[in-house]
Amino acid sequence: MSLVSSYSDWLRRGMRCFDAAVALLVAFALMRMLPGLDHTERLEYPLLIIAGSLLLPACGELIGLYQPWRGRSLYTMLGVYVLSWLTTIVLISLLLVATQSTQTFSRLWMGAASLGVLGTGALIRAALYGYLRRLRAQGHNIKRIVLIGPQSNVSRLEARLGSMPFVGYRVTHRVIGDSVKAVRDEVRSLATVSIFDRDFDEIWLSYPLAQGDRVRQLADELVRVPVSIRYFPDLSDVRLLNHRMAQVAGMYSLDLNYSPLNGPMRLVKACEDRLLGLLLLLAFLPVMLGIAALVRWKMGGPVLFKQQRHGLDGKSFKIYKFRSMALHEPGAGTQQATRGDPRITPLGAFLRRTSLDELPQLYNVLQGRMSLVGPRPHAMDHNEYYKDEIEAYMQRHRVKPGMTGWAQVNGLRGITDNVETMRKRVEYDLFYIDNWSLGLDLKILAMTLTRGFINRQP
């Protein structure tokens, strides 16, 4: 076993112990510090603390919290940690309800201990993540790799790794050549001398898909070497949105428009939407009631604007907003708001500028028809137009539309008065779909608080 593998195993065990220790220490400290907490000579508190401290790393192991951090973003790692923490809280709550023990413990202590564990664990994780990045950038904790492929592909991979020294990969060997026999002979020789003793940790192959036979031959030669073998296909000759290898009916396929938001991850995102959506609805409910009263007073009824939009898989649903325009006869198609639009009332202009008119969509989120984060839903006739103008436009509907999105927090919102503007927005939407993670969702929600509410467009 290499030093890097040994270090990774040690780190995984250490992080599991760390999570358990944080839960123990924080919960016990708050139990001692909170005034008026009757915990003396009672075993219930220590037993609950021990159960929670053991449950947290167990949930983390199931969700993938202790997978190697190398190459993962900080937001993704913290997102998985938050999900592990939420799962632990839910399981403990169910245990307390099942045993009818909810009245035994102080709610103030349970809330403080839960948030204390979350905050402490997240802060130390973020600090350790930054430390490891600096350590790798300085040449420590490095994984040594062998690159095999044509000169252009090897150079492309080296340039990519050179631009990201913090991921901790260093090229130690290269096998380059156009001659099939020469490359295979060199690979066979490398494999023979590297079976039991080697100075590399991974082998990376990079060839076009059309040269699949060569990849298979080289993989057969390398299978004797007990290290990870990765294939980075050169897909320049194939039009792809995003891709992955999958096994279907015992056969391997290359999914050409794969999104991480599939299978179990849809359940994860649904839990995220329901839990955070409910919390946000409760937090904004007084504001929403106040806005509803103002709209009724200033503009009369109805308070809500309702319109059909395309959602997941292109299916229609009814979207809700606070009404921001005076009542008018609808035209043949959807007319976008423009600067100085006489239909927009003064109150409506304020609601649109602050995005407060979008708050009723929290109900759409709780209905399961929208997500907190996702591509913004466009008017149906706009979809009819742009689906023929922008090649991958309808790929936006592979996920639920969102109240906020990657395009919106990057300034692509409001009027789309030409194809190029819409094309740029679609590029950001597809980036979100192709690179979805719980961490990316949390990042977008955080960015929405700082730059996503104020809308300078009509």
UniProtKB/TrEMBL annotation:
Top-rank taxon: Bacteria
Name of the protein described by the UniProt record: GumD protein
Species of the source: Bisbaumannia pacifica
Membrane-related topology note: Multi-pass membrane protein
Family: Belongs to the bacterial sugar transferase family.
Cellular component GO terms held in the UniProt record: membrane
Annotated GO MF terms: phosphotransferase activity, for other substituted phosphate groups
Keyword line: Membrane, Transferase, Transmembrane, Transmembrane helix
Transmembrane segments annotated in the record for this chain: 17-35, 47-66, 78-97, 109-132, 275-297
Gene label: gumD
Domain Bacterial sugar transferase: 269-451
Places the protein is found: Membrane
A UniProt-annotated Pfam family: CoA_binding_3
